[in-house]
Design brief:
The structure is a single chain. This protein is of the alpha/beta class. The protein folds into 2 domains: about 80 residues, K Homology domain, type 1 (Ribosomal Protein S8, Chain: A, domain 1, 2-Layer Sandwich); about 200 residues, Rossmann fold, CATH 3.40.50. Helix content is about 35%, strand content about 20%. The strands form 4 sheets. Strands 10-9-11-12-8-13 form a 6-stranded parallel β-sheet, with helices on both faces. A 3-stranded antiparallel β-sheet has the order 1-3-2. The longest helix is centred in the N-terminal third of the chain and has 19 residues. The chain is elongated. The two termini are about 35 Å apart.
Amino acid sequence: MSRKPVPAQSGDRSRVEVTFDKPQLLPQLFGEFDSNLLMLEERLGVYIHARGQRVVIEGGTEAVAHAREVLQELHSRVIRGEEVDGGLIDAVIAMSSEPMFTGIVRAEPTNGGPKPSIMIRTRKKTIVPRSVTQTHYMRELASNDLIFALGPAGTGKTYLAVAQAVAQLITGSVQRLILSRPAVEAGERLGFLPGDMKEKVDPYLRPIYDALYDCLPAEQVERRIASGEIEIAPIAFMRGRTLADAFVILDEAQNTTPMQMKMFLTRFGQNSRMVICGDPNQTDLPGGPSASGLNDAVNRLEGVEGISMVRFGVGDVVRHPIVGRIVAAYEGEG
């Protein structure tokens, strides 16, 4: 960076120097024209000067310590193959402010060996959490059989569930992926639409397809759909079935009726895992949230053994920062 750092002063100010290995990765860490370092300066109120493999951070004592921690975590992410962008920088800053950050995202020794970081590996990418709640959610996905993921759009509820489902399909721990959601609002009245059933339903399942194609090569997605390993269907198609040896995801669950939700939950079979994703505040049902099968199920099943409830908030939105501000405005939080 061309600007000379401000000298440390007496009082609550400090100056630290960090040296990074793997110099070939530093352009990704620093960003074009040091844009990532400039963002850290703005977010954390410090001055950062980079020369070669050395970075000097100056400012208030707590801010400098925070900046060093964030920079070191970002460096670890680059080593793991992640791309540093504004969203990741904001997520790491937010996570580093939480006491549970240390030892959950980073590896730490356990009985003389490394403790693996929280991540989901698929054919195309390795996915790591971008918020504290995502860290908790990914732990639940790896350990519990029935999970309700609740919260606003953009928090990664469906995306992470699909990634975990793909990872388990790849390893053989499940034999099928069954991905479902209510089609047209809650009534699923598809008859007036042109085309066969697949053509009628596909537009409403597009977000699930997008997540699949992000985790698997396109040819594998098509092949696995053709073979029945991956099934994508509206919730009405689940009636009368028992879903064994499967990873089952219900998206947009707030648009189910209580009877649809009961029907879906009771499809649960042996060696299966089920994730219910939805925003309790965004139902399209006539009658609003009180008519939602998702809200009814949460009220009935909260605290039931073996069922996990993960709640995302506005601060967990990992899309463009403006999405979080939009959600907050609509929910009266900002």
